[in-house]
Amino acid sequence: MVLRQPGENGRGRDLMRGLMQEWPLLIHKVIDYAAAEHGGRAVLSRSVEGPMHRTTYREVRARSLRVAKRLQLDGIAVGDRVATLAWNTWRHLEAWYGIAGIGAVYHTVNPRLFADQIVYIMNHARDRVLFLDLTFVPLAEKIAGRLPSVERYIVLTDAAHMPDTSLPNAVAYEEWLAGADEDFTWAAVEETNAAGLCYTSGTTGEPKGVLYSHRSNVLHAMMTVMPDAFGLSTRDVVLPVVPLFHANSWSLAFAAPMAGSALVMPGPKLDGASVYDILTTERVTFTAAVPTIWFALLQHLEKTGGALPDLTRVAIGGSACPPAVIEAFERKYDVPVLHAWGMTEMSPVGSICSVKPEVWSEDYGKLLAVKATQGYTPFSVEWKITDDAGVALPHDGKTFGRLKVRGPAVARRYYQREDEEILDEEGYFDTGDVATIDGDGYMRITDRSKDVIKSGGEWISSIELENLAVGHPDVAEAAVIGISHPKWDERPLLIVVPKPGRVPEKDAVLDFLRPNIARWWMPDDMVVVADLPHTATGKILKTELRDRFRDYRLPTEA
Ligand code: AMP
Q: What is the mean pLDDT of residues 419-446?
């Protein structure tokens, strides 16, 4: 059919449309596919109650349909936000597919955020329902009074494990689910409809919501499955240690069923011994997490003399993976590492470091230098580096610039901030990272333009700590910077300038912060200085501070 669209280019132009089917890219089609083609494939979870739980994609789909039907009975409709505060388990997975399957939006809430931040983002999202694990009932009880939009709390457990709770309208998931059968047809939504919501932990200002569409999630999952990305197949047993609340567990909750891989969900236990136990017992072949998880696993292996015979590769990202970790996995345990980079705004995968033939070397030192980079883009991510004026810089491996990205799974706007332009005139999003790109396409993050502190894959806002510290009667000015730490990647160091005639005591200042911050935000040390360096506009010059404290060793390092 030839369509005439007058007005295009101001002249009128003939368009020849393709004649292929409209088959919307919907995430519930992923679980439909897995149930149809790989229905008996295992989905194993370490339950929050304790024991291992075994199910299949066929069963996960059937129960997702029941979730969808039950949510609809509760009056949840297209576009409503339904929050989850939960570990990686089969129930969380069912909830995800069920929520998206009626056209509602799953909103993964990171339980490691400070309670006030959780309140802020849940009110901002106006979540109507909260699915939560037993672990988080006490947390939810504390904040429920400040969550007016939440009509119902569904505790992801059965009646036998349901605690006494003050949560309004609380119900055990299994009891709630019993109120619906699986005779349900997924909502016929458009592929560009919203499917998921995840807030970035804001370093300046409030957290911002990234609103994924069905289409962006499906395309992103297809991209991560590709051979030089995660390379998933029916022979794989996939363990997403990275939580669903960390930007879609790097897509693994979609990618594994799409590829027909078996799925192993680690539940709440993410320490070295527990991760080792589940990796080996369930014969996992592919896993992914932030470096901190792998530091702990490697330490456990050192201590116990364990081995990783089934693991064929491990993806590491979320913060820079030290070459020593890559080398330990590859040389000691014979497990190739895929160093990955990305961000919440990118769904999140932006690049993966696999070895192209042109950079292959027999010399492991040379190979390691490549493997320690953040890799190159898979199909559907485009990037450039620019100077501050937006002028593109050469890909020579030396020139560093602002890293900017575009693609079908990259954010275009933030949720409820639609009037804010976040793309440049070519449609690229500024990642806030500073990087080089070499002639073979390999990118290396050299710095962050933000001053955020990354601890164990989570962000600590320096500004929030500083704002609190200056509230102490002995403190005139405060700065917080990240100091590198062998276990947590970075930990905060608090640097204070005393008020005239006062002597701030470390213990007193830290005690002062304690009631207002999450425990893991607590600075590992405090130093007193006579003054802080400032920029021309009066801002603390963090780069200079970092230089000054480059060789500083935290007392917690041992
Ligand atoms: P988030 O949105 O919380 O996932 O954080 C995204 C940010 O984490 C990126 O903009 C980077 O600053 C950082 N990041 C992620 N992966 C890596 C990596 N492999 N190396 C260095 N930094 C990383």
A: 94
Distance from the first to the final alpha carbon of the chain: 71
H helices present in 332-486, as ranges: 364-371, 462-469
* Mutate-to-test residue for ligand 1 from 199, 341, 461, highest number of ligand atoms within 8 A of CB: 341
Do 257 and 33 meet the contact criterion of CB atoms below 8 Å apart? yes
Q: What is the pTM of this model?
A: 0.84
Residue 520 has φ and ψ, to the nearest 5°, of -75, -5
Q: What is the dihedral of CA 427, 428, 429, 432, to 10 degrees?
A: -150
Q: pLDDT tens digits, residue range 121-145? A: 999 999 999 999 999 999 999 999 9
- Give φ, ψ of 202 to 5 degrees: -65, 135
Q: Where in the chain is the domain with CATH 3.30.300.30?
A: 459-557
472 pLDDT band (50/70/90 cuts)?
very high
Quick check: 108 and 347 in contact, CB under 8 A? no
Core vs surface per residue 78-106: b (16+ CB within 10 A) or e: eebbbbbbbbbbbbbbbbbbbbbbbbbbb
- Looking from the CA of residue 459, the nearest atom of ligand 1 is 3
Residue 241 predicted with pLDDT over 50: yes
- The reply to whether CATH 3.40.30.110 applies to domain 459-557 is no
The number of beta carbons lying within 10 Å of the beta carbon of residue 360 is 10
Cβ atoms 136, 157 nearer than 8 A: no
Alpha carbon of 477 to ligand 1 centroid (Å): 29
In one letter, which amino acid is 108? Answer: T
pLDDT given at position 537: 42
Domain 382-403+415-448 class, CATH top level:
mainly beta
Please report, for residues 56, 382, 445, the alpha-carbon distance to residue 399 in angstroms, rounded to integers and kept in the order given: 49, 18, 12
Residues 6 or more apart in contact with residue 524 via CB below 8 angstroms? 483, 485, 491, 492, 493, 554, 555, 556
Q: Find out whether 158 and 175 touch, Cβ atoms under 8 Å.
A: yes
- Where are the CATH 2.30.38.10 domain residues in the chain? 382-403+415-448
Strand partners, 483: 491
- Which residue's CA lies nearest to atom 9 of ligand 1? 343
